From TrEMBL:
Keywords: Decarboxylase, Lipid biosynthesis, Lipid metabolism, Lyase, Phospholipid biosynthesis, Phospholipid metabolism, Pyruvate
Listed name of the protein: phosphatidylserine decarboxylase
Pathway(s) this gene product operates in, as recorded in its UniProt entry: Lipid metabolism; Phospholipid metabolism; phosphatidylethanolamine biosynthesis
Membrane-spanning parts: none
Sample GO molecular function, one term: phosphatidylserine decarboxylase activity
Amino acid sequence: MFKANLDEIDASLTEFPSLSDFFVRPLKPDARIIADHTNMVAPSDGKVLHFGPITSCKVEQVKGMTYNLQHFLGEPNWPHIDKEDSIAKKPVSDNYVTSLLKNPENLLYQLTIYLAPGDYHRFHSPADWTINLRRHFQGKLLSVNPKIASWLPDLFAMNERVVYIGEWAGGFMAYTAVGATNVGSIHVYKDSELVTNKRKWFNNAKHSEDARFEGGMRVQKGELFGEFRMGSTIVLIFEAPRDFEFTTEVGQKILMGQALTNGIVAS
């Protein structure tokens, strides 16, 4: 079924009343190993579409095709701990990228993972981190299949998406679940107030809606975070030192819990 690995499912196929329920199937406890030699791991199963440092607001969704980072994340008016200068001011162009950094000596990085229909559709925390804000963008539900992403610019910034903003050991982190065709329903276990794929806001009077978590929502590396009802995309944008190196390759099939880098990124 969709080339899914049925041997790792922690349930009988008869227990899934629909395909949507099958997509969010639970796995056996030992089906995924959380790497313990690093503090940054893959948040989901899937195919790596792109990764690397972010040097401008034009970020590659796949090789040769970009989306606008500022459109994707929105205005940076979220809490930002231990930074003297407010970043709530409207930035201009590539200043937006540097405005996200807690430490100006660091760089911003991104990793994009596409979940095909046969992949395990629950997603997990990539690191130990504290979430301060959730931003929900209502948008389209266009296919995020890599073939579509390769010819439609700004695709990720057009689709419905839920962005979680916070900090990890390396600094800033934005963890985004992007909706897609038939995947307007994004469920996050610790965020019961989130409702996606609902009636659009009246006359599109607002583009996004924020929810702040007083005191921060603490999540741990590998912790179960949420689920899609069918294939979609996870976009991870995070701050780290300039010598940060990924251990992944474009086109690689990765599993949740797999190390994204070797070693520990220090705070």
